[in-house]
Design brief:
The chain has about 350 residues and is of the alpha/beta class. Helix content is about 40%, strand content about 25%. The structure holds zinc ion (2 copies).
């Protein structure tokens, strides 16, 4: 066979293979689905995790659209109990991608009522209800004002609830399991309140500085000797430093001032003065990565996970620019959070394991 003929046959064979793959891709994907779907539906990360405190990022972002970061959301597992802190846009789907069954969520905790922290809550309440036929509504803890958020969503979803109960029946979808149950708390004189406590687990809320937004809180979670602080939205805050003293993991919000200056300049050049003003306004109630690092250093935490990343980091290399000089301020590990980050603090050791779930 001549070289030319050989090349022609090779080309024809490649085209035939590509054609076959194209025509059979439907049946192939169905066969694959049959093999994996039961396994996926039976998966429940809660069953497989070792005893400890585990933190997964279901949303590392902010209101800025970011391909790698949904709106703010932190999943916390204490032993076999699953809690969600804030529920930003897109985050309920990420909770599933982390390997958790929505129906196993015991409660939600809100830091404040800016839209980016609650705009996935309606979807989350629905998923929790339908995924395991829950018969009681989802407890939603938060400072005063949480009642209004939960009542509003209940009203917005009232028709959907009726459709689904009528269609699937009370046994499959008990009407009483839809929506949420507001659990408001009040911060005491000391600037903190214990919201949930039993033999092994304590979840406390504390006031942070997100003025002019009141109330706004962060949370400290401790379980069998391991501990995590979630800052919520805040400027650099003495309260966060106090609560984070010696914790294993500090999940701290962060905003890059130089990057916001670029956006502000761009909005000015684009002739969008209103947007320029918005970009400028948000500078005064968030913390920079360097300030978060100072807090981590002064509180002697084990690991700093930057969260609520502002603005979106849409180009390669931007994470490095975002973090600025934070790594020279705090000697411990600093990570710019992305959705799917998963940090495990096993009980009975001082280990801090960073992994990725998707
Ligand atoms: Zn906020
Ligand atoms: Zn926010």
């Amino acid at each position: 066979m001549t070289l030319r003929r050989f090349a022609l046959y090779t080309l024809l064979a490649a085209l035939l293979a590509a054609g076959a793959a194209y025509w059979f891709r439907g049946p192939l994907s169905m066969a694959l689905a049959k093999r994996v779907v039961a396994g996926r539906l039976a998966a429940d990360a809660l069953k497989d995790l070792p005893d400890g405190l585990h933190v997964g990022l279901c949303g590392a972002g902010s209101p800025f659209p970011d391909d790698q970061r949904a709106g703010p959301c932190t999943a916390v597992v204490a032993g076999k109990r699953l809690f969600i802190f804030d529920v930003g846009s897109g985050s309920p789907r990420n909770i599933g991608k982390l390997g958790f069954v929505h129906g196993r969520i015991e409660a939600v905790f809100l830091t404040h009522f800016h839209s980016d922290h609650i705009d996935g809550l309606g979807e989350l309440m629905l998923q929790r209800w339908v995924s395991t036929s829950n018969s009681a509504p989802l407890p939603v803890h938060g400072p005063q004002g949480v009642e209004q958020v939960v009542a509003g969503l209940r009203q917005a979803y009232a028709q959907d609830q009726q459709y689904r109960v009528a269609h699937h029946g009370e046994v499959t979808l008990p009407a009483g399991g839809s929506g949420g149950l507001a659990q408001p708390f009040q911060i005491g004189q000391a600037g903190r309140v214990v919201v949930l406590k039993d033999a092994d687990l304590e979840i406390a809320a504390f006031s942070v500085d997100h003025a002019p937004i009141h109330p706004a809180v962060g949370y400290r979670i401790s379980y069998k000797g391991r501990s995590v602080v979630i800052s919520g939205d805040t400027k650099q805050s003495a309260a966060v430093q106090r609560e984070a003293q010696g914790v294993d993991l500090l999940v701290h919000e962060a905003l890059s001032v130089p990057m916001m200056a670029v956006l502000e300049g761009g909005a000015g050049q684009a002739g969008r003065p209103q947007l320029k003003q918005l970009f400028n306004d948000i500078l005064n109630y968030h913390a920079t990565p360097e300030q978060a690092a100072e807090t981590a250093r002064d509180a002697k935490v084990g690991f700093l996970l930057l969260h609520h990343i502002v603005p979106a980091l849409s180009l390669p290399g931007m994470e490095q620019a975002f973090v600025g000089t934070a790594r020279s301020i705090f000697n411990g590990p600093v990570r710019v959070g992305t959705d799917g980050d998963f940090i495990s603090l096993p009980v009975g050791s001082a280990k801090i394991d960073l992994g990725r779930r998707f």
